[in-house]
Amino acid sequence: MANDPPTTRGGPPAGSRGASGVLTATCVSAFVVNANTSAVSILLPAISEDTGASLATLQWAVTGYSLVGAAVIVTSGALGDIFGRRRIFLGGLLLFVASCVLIALGDGAGTVIAGRAIQGAAGSTLLACGLSLLSAGSSGDAQMRSVALWGAASAAGAAAGPLLGGALVDVTGWQGLFWLDAVIAALCVPLTLRTVPESRDPARARSVDLAGTVLIAAVLVPFVFGVTEGADWGWLSAPTLSCFVVSAVAVVGFVLAEQRVRAPLVDLALLRNTYLVGSTVAILVVAGCINALMYVCSLYFQNPDGLGMTPLQAGVATLPAAAGIVVTAPLVTRFVDRIGARRVIAGGFGIATAAFAAFAFVEASWGYAAFVGPMIVLAVGLGLANGPSSSVATACVTEEQVGAASGISNMGRYVGAAVLTAVTAALFSAVYTRHHTSGTAVADALAAGFSRAAVGLGLFCAFGIALALLVGRIRPTGPPTAAHYAAAAAAGSHTVPTRPTAAAPR
Predict the structure, then answer these.
(1) CB atoms within 10 A of CB 261
(2) Residues 49-81: tens digit of each pLDDT
(3) In this model, does residue 491 exceed pLDDT 60?
(4) Which of 20, 43, 192, 201 has its CA 20 to 30 A from that of 268?
(5) How many CA atoms lie within 13 A of 391 on its CB side?
(6) In 3D, which of 42, 322, 285 has the Cα closest to residue 156?
């Protein structure tokens, strides 16, 4: 997505007031979106108890968000380039408010899941268009300062989400988080109208690849549904195989469609860049592992036969993993500058694999103290792998390709969160059910489910070590700046460029 200078149609002129308004509106929205996303897993047990829905069903409140986000994030950026970034950003805000209200008023799993799916579209739109607004509104060092602040807000939201969600459950019920988010997002609407100038890319093709968006959904939804339900249906049953066949056919359709459209959702030529492919898959694995772990930890920590924590206690208990990866990533940025991304990514996945191996020995007798060490080690490992992978994704392409590369890596992040959370939830549930029906005590069955889920995630991390070979020997061109540190911290939720993008003269 090209970054053109702000136009004055439909908004105030660009200047200090406009720049300040853009920064405030986009940073607040980034904080809220990422806090909301990271908090939801903590809320699931309370939602289950209140609505009577099973946790297996409510898993779709997590994966549905990511599935829709994966399909929409590139398209929303394209719509902003064509019709105006402020206009699409405002649409994202209104949609986010509506989704929060729908979820908060919901009295059943269907409403919560539908609201979360809508929220996936709204959240990805706010992140994509918010970053584009910042990039279009400034250039050079000023642009990088704005992007660094946006990245810091994103990282802070991701780290604070579980704690905020757990605290609100105890005070207001699980609906409180969504009411608070709705109010904050609603306040951003008049702020955006008053202070944010409009911008668009007049050089971009006017066509939007809606077919690609639909086909991405057609690839992901049947696949995740088959993975989630396969254990109950039977892996070789007609419904399961049908899901996988539909997904495979959609992959073929997507490739054919992208070769024919004028402005493709994914530039297939970029997929010949092994650095970009390797870093994107690494991002996919990291996002999937941290989201899946947060899901399983939330269920296990709050289950009366697990650790029996309250939502607030569980929010605090997951901080080593949720906040650890955000804190670790920027701390290793200068280290990457010295030895290169490949070694750091491989080492990070190796450390994460070891942490998951430790979780494989979880037993019902474990107290919370036994979980802390592996969670900290895991945060260090995933933080080491995540920041450099995100940087490589935009460093391995030309300036004109940065937007497209960022879109591909962000799509991979959403896909990883959806698929690995679904796989882990299905594995956890299947192992728990098998042990429980065979007469194993509930506490032991839960521990067995956690253990096998950790083994599965450990295998994905081990695969990530091999991915580092595709990343190559890309090194930064100079000492890390504030933008590099912020980008590394934000890498858990969004790929943030670490170099300015060129803008046409005003």
Answers:
(1) 15
(2) 999 999 989 999 999 999 999 989 988 988 998
(3) yes
(4) 201
(5) 35
(6) 322
Q: Cα(375)–Cα(294) distance, rounded to whole angstroms?
A: 10
CA distances from 163 to 58, 323, 371, 464, 471 (A): 20, 10, 18, 29, 34
pLDDT tens digits, one per residue of 110-149: 999 999 999 999 999 999 898 888 877 666 777 778 888 8
Contact (CB, 8 A) for 318 and 414: no
Q: Is the pLDDT of residue 343 over 60?
A: yes
Distance in angstroms (rounded) separating the CA atoms of residues 372 and 369: 5
The pLDDT score that the predictor gives to residue 479 is 62
Rounded to two decimals, the pTM is 0.88
Q: How far apart are the first and last CA of the chain?
A: 18
**Residue 206: φ, ψ to 5°:** -80, -10
* Angle subtended by helix axes 85-105 and 109-136, to nearest 10: 160
Residue corresponding to tokens 């970034």: 85
Residues with Cβ within 8 Å of 355's Cβ and at least 6 positions away in sequence, in order, are 374, 375, 377, 378, 381
